[in-house]
């Protein structure tokens, strides 16, 4: 068994699609209308047949509450791996991304946390 799809709640699918593709560099794999929303799945440009990230609308009350509470507590909604966290940190800063935690060594890992502008904190990690 392996993870093929994971999702993240977003407040605005269009804004999230722009941020995750134009700023973070993910590639759109699916963008299919489903009622009033869309099935938007992104992949890493390096693994286009890899795990898909769904930009899930947070319109359900439980989703909104969950998203607000973990954000308020400073808990990242998900984690993305990077090969050079300091380089990625600088690139994202130059793109206007707001970090809540600069790259920080934690044992064998270095992590940083940023705001995705769509209601989430996102953690990046270099192993």
UniProtKB/TrEMBL annotation:
Organism annotation: Paenibacillus albiflavus
Domain VOC, first and last residues per copy: 1-127
Domain of life: Bacteria
Pfam families listed in its UniProt record: Glyoxalase
InterPro entries for the chain: Glyas_Bleomycin-R_OHBP_Dase, Glyas_Fos-R_dOase_dom, VOC_core
Annotated protein name in UniProt: VOC family protein
